[in-house]
Automatic annotation (TrEMBL):
Record's keyword terms, sorted: Lyase, Metal-binding
InterPro entries attached to this UniProt entry: Aldolase_TIM, HMGL, PYR_CT
Start-end of Low complexity biased regions: 81-103
Entry-linked Pfam families: HMGL-like
One function term, GO molecular function aspect: lyase activity
PROSITE patterns: PYR_CT
Family of this protein: Belongs to the HMG-CoA lyase family.
Keyword Metal-binding annotated: yes
Spans annotated as Disordered: 72-106, 239-265
Domain of life: Bacteria
Pyruvate carboxyltransferase domain boundaries: 6-339
Protein's name in the database: Hydroxymethylglutaryl-CoA lyase
Amino acid sequence: GLPSRVRIHEVGPRDGLQNEKAVVPVAVKAEFIKRLVAAGLRTVEATSFVHPKWVPQLADAEELYPLVSGLRDAEHPRSPSPAASARPAPADSPADPADAAAPGRLSEPADVSLPVLVPNARGLERALTLGARQVAVFASATESFARANLNRTVDEALAMFEPVVARAKEERLTVRGYLSMCFGDPWEGPVPVAQVVRVCKSLADMGCDELSLGDTIGVATPGHVSALLAALHEAGLPASGTAPARTPDNDDTEAAADPGSAPATTPRLAVHFHDTYGQALANTLAALQHGVATVDASAGGLGGCPFAKSATGNLATEDLVWMLHGLGIETGVDLDLLSSTSLWMAEHLGRPSPSRTVRALSGT
Ligand code: HMG
Ligand code: MG
């Protein structure tokens, strides 16, 4: 069945804005992040601590992060009643009838996370200095993209991440491992599933709490998504992970209780679709059917990757929310507030949002 609740990992401020030609003023970025949180998003990827020459759009990370880090500890009102907010009629047979009554409402309090990308020890140091608590490393399933994005081979990049993940875990941070080019690569074409599984296992062995499977150039189709998730399951990496996130507090309790049968902790899986070929929602549904309950998206469909030919925007968060609420799946997001945030950002960027849902809701 489908999950009753999905955690949306909002990447607009990072994956969206990293690809903009014009540098967005830091105050506008901070306002964007605040509005996303106010719209009910609880995981908002804020920026990257990468080399400023590689990604000039995010060179202001040191200025931006302190402007938004207080959002993590602030009290946030729950989304207003979903009846007040535009949403599709629930489907006839939603995942859970109890959820269908109020698909937009959060049923439990949730903290705000503001993860940041860190490619190496220098990036992690910068993030720790500013008090970041969630970080992400970003690997590639293909040699061509590893070279283009990280100036390394796949294995050199993994070797670069290993001490970063270890140090981050020591500091009790939550670590996400991105894996790019999981389906197709602009230089190499279709990517063999086994190649993706191998790198996923390396990231899992390092101790990542979550893996995000990236379709960087948006070429995946639902059958390919199913095949990859089935292969990962087969390889011991089920979508939900096999234990709660490892923390110093619960690290040894379960294993000690039953050392023989306790499975090793494995990361939960997330999906990260770009919508280049209009497949992102269909791919998301395929992933939900495999038990994935964390989905990356970017408000208004902003985004792309400056190091991958033909990468366009991520799946638009509004399009995702429309589908999830229609399925009776909780997100905690107020679609009207989110959509007006994307319209506001589109004005700043001087072009309309590519999100179909934003356009439909705003009548533009
Ligand atoms: P490099 O040139 O090999 O770096 O780049 P290096 O390790 O040789 O160091 C060279 C210089 O850079 C040194 O300075 C370092 O201190 C400095 P120097 O001693 O020469 O003065 N340096 C740094 N400065 C600030 N912050 C740092 C840092 N690291 C080194 N963190 C590097 C290697 C990884 C740094 C570079 O390739 C890089 O920054 N790449 C980032 C690329 C990127 O951000 N791509 C976009 C994100 S990934 C993505 O969008 C895909 C995703 O959305 C999923 C999907 O869709 O698939 C996540
Ligand atoms: Mg991306």
